[in-house]
Amino acid sequence: MSDDSPPTDAVEVVPDLDALPRPAGPAVGTSAADNVAPAVTVNVEARREGARLAIALILLGLLALLTIASLCGLLANLINARELKDVATALITPVVALVGAATGFYYGGRTP
């Protein structure tokens, strides 16, 4: 006998929630107004301001890290001036552009 149905002890029976009886009104000791979920208020402008600040600070930190690492490499004779120019062209210049854009966006979005 080949029975394709799973064994009864392995099947979890989930009741149909629409078939369950529902209470006619609010719970005892509460009113209909108590069953309303409280309104959630989100200060969108404050969150946007925080995100702008975080992005600007991260990019400024990245620029500072690249600049300090490049100068330390130059002073420690790990790289020469020609290699520093290549590093500045490849890494520092795009980060400066990103910092300028992020800073402009951060301060441009602030209205007095």
Question: Can you walk me through this structure?
Answer:
With 112 residues, the protein is mostly helical. The protein is built from two helices and no strands. It has a domain at 44-112. The protein has helices at 44-75, 81-108. The longest helix has 32 residues, at 44-75. The mean pLDDT is 78.
Short description:
Helix content is 54%, strand content 0%.
Secondary structure elements and their pairing?
Blueprint: H1 44-75, H2 81-108
Helix pairs in contact: 1-2
Query: How would a textbook summarize the main sheet?
Result: none
Helix-strand makeup class: mainly alpha
Query: Which value, in Å, is the CA radius of gyration?
Result: 31 Å
The H-and-E topology, N to C, reads as: HH
DSSP helix fraction = 40-55%
Number of helices: 2
Instruction: Report the strand count.
Output: 0
Average pLDDT, to the nearest integer?
78
End-to-end Cα distance, whole Å, is 81 Å
- The parts where pLDDT drops under 50 for at least 5 residues are none
| Overall 3D shape | elongated
SS strand fraction: under 5%
Keywords:
about 110 residues; mainly alpha; 2 helices; about 55% helix
